[in-house]
Amino acid sequence: MWGKYIALIWLSLQANFVFSDKLHYNSSVLEDAKLTTPELIEKYGYKVETHVIQTNDGYRLTIHRIPKHGARPVLLVHGLGDSSAAWVLTGPGCGLAYLLSDRGYDIWLMNIRGNRYSRKHIRYATSDRQFWDFSFHEHGVYDIPAVIDYILPISDHHQVHYIGHSQGTSAVFAMGADRPSYMKKIKLLQALAPVAYFENLRSPIIRLIKPYAEILIKLARIFGIYEFPPNRKAWSRMFYKLCTSTLRNTCKQVLMKVMGLDGPQFNDTLTPLIFSHFFYSASLKALEHYQQLLNSDGFYKFNYSKRSDNIKKYGTKYPPEYNVENINCKVALYYSRNDQLTSHKDVQNLRKKLPNVVHDELLAYPQFNHLDFLIAIDAKKLLYGSMFRVMEKVDKGEL
């Protein structure tokens, strides 16, 4: 069976494999690929601020803000391997952060611990194993609460709008389950491509990798690798050069195989931006936590290899399940049938367990994939318009 999947993927890639050194991009796009998030925002005429927030366990997080002083704050939290750039890459008129700013919101773009902008700790260096001892759980119980507590006094509001994509939803679900008091500080939680349960995930790529993931993670630990990819700067440079020149079509096809095939909504001109800002770095523990969930029938905390470690951490031999019923703030769910990293059936199962879902939307466009939530050509029409309407209703007290 695996031979069939490998053959199909290989043939598909070969059909789109292009060797060419004559591919050209607009000079502005190439320039944007080299800019940081604040530089991107500033280039397009928006004000930008950089804030550094220290968590209770010593990580220093860099937060980027498109300020609207006195306006309702919106906290946007990216997915695995992403950064604050995820919300602005498609530019003014298209990027969600810009559109929300244009609608009068005070925008806060989070960078979780370990990503390219949040790589400092009061005791550990990124070369230390201890620095990378986190998954989405720590993002939820440390990072997000620290940022919310920082934002609210500055904004002079009692609640934030929260928008998370992929791992940004797993983290806030963990926060809601373990620190339910923070649900009172969220006016509306909008979850894009929510990731919690994996019982119905049928992605060929995931099914191909799944049997070997555990051994690969163990091998990485044996060799002292705790960040993936290791040597992130060298990896990023190589990835960018290959995927914007000789292997452009191949990289695009691999991306589509992993995220879900949707050529019509993929803007080829953004290729340099996508492959310079996405897939930057993640902790091995975060990947392992998701690997564990793939092999479970629920949404569980991290399972340590020794039962004694679980007993020390949780008081039980096995990790407890997150109590998602504690997530009692207003929740809006947005998901799709063509998302290869989260199943629409699993999101619907999650929806049954959440106590206060005010909006549940299976996107009508059948090819919408996991990355389309951020970069689809027609994201405003297919998704963001609906999000804005829900936010407006909640702000007016109509939901």
TrEMBL record:
Top-rank taxon, per record: Eukaryota
Keywords tagged on the record: Glycoprotein, Hydrolase, Lipid degradation, Lipid metabolism, Signal
Record keyword rRNA-binding present: no
Signal peptide extent: 1-20
GO biological process: lipid catabolic process
Catalytic center residues: 166, 339, 370
A GO term, aspect molecular function: hydrolase activity, acting on ester bonds
All copies of domain AB hydrolase-1, residue ranges: 73-374
Keyword rRNA-binding found: no
Family stated for the protein in its record: Belongs to the AB hydrolase superfamily. Lipase family.
Name of the featured protein: Lipase
